[in-house]
Amino acid sequence: MRKTTTFALLATALVALGCGAGATEEVAGTAGASGEKGEKKATKIGDAARDGKFEFTVESSKCGVKKVGSDLLGAKAQGQFCLVTVNVKNIGKESQMFDGSSQKAYAADGTEYSADGSAALYANKNAETFLNDINPGNQVTGVIVFDIPKDVELTKLSLHDSMFSGGVVVALS
């Protein structure tokens, strides 16, 4: 009986934690990542887009980079690095952790690419995109790094306030 009670409490706690996680706020010009009906058009570089407690503004995107960091400390791309500079503002009322590894990039054929967290450490002077707590009203600008094949071109990003959120789509082309 005791194991059943402990399991029930654990399950209840996990459900309670998950209830608030992933809640997204859609505003004009934002969209979820999945392309389901009822979504709004994706935003583009330079436009603000909201997901949960964060407002994202993609400032630039540069692909074809072979290495990030210095000659002594750095990371070399398996294919090519795409460096995406993003401003992240906390629009909520509580501190929220920004995790660059929760962000995704997509090619035209729908292939999904994960962010390269270790390369991002070399691309950012102050680890802006690595588990960075952002207080309400504050913002950071950092580089999210994607290591993609040399012959691939990214067409969109899916930016998330947490690994559980629906995300917002930003077109890169």
Describe what this molecule looks like in 3D.
This protein is an alpha+beta fold and 173 residues long. The chain has a single domain (23-171), classed as Immunoglobulin-like. It has two helices and eleven strands; from the N terminus they run αβββββββαββββ. Strands 1-11-10-6-7 form a five-stranded mixed sheet, with no helix packed on it. The chain has a four-stranded antiparallel sheet with strand order 2-3-4-9, with helices on one face. Strands 5-8 form a two-stranded antiparallel ribbon. A hairpin with a 2-residue loop joins strand 2 and strand 3 (54-69). The radius of gyration is 18 Å and the shape is globular.
Summarize the structure.
By secondary structure, this protein is α+β, with helices and mostly antiparallel strands.
Give the topology, please.
Elements: H1 2-20, E1 43-44, E2 48-51, E3 54-69, E4 74-90, E5 96-98, E6 104-107, E7 112-114, H2 117-123, E8 132-134, E9 139-148, E10 154-159, E11 168-171
Parallel strand pairs: 1-11
Antiparallel strand pairs: 2-3, 3-4, 4-9, 5-8, 6-7, 6-10, 10-11
Structural class: alpha+beta
Domain count, please report it.
1
Number of helices: 2
**What share of the residues lie within helices?**
10-25%
Averaging pLDDT over every residue, what do you get?
A: 80
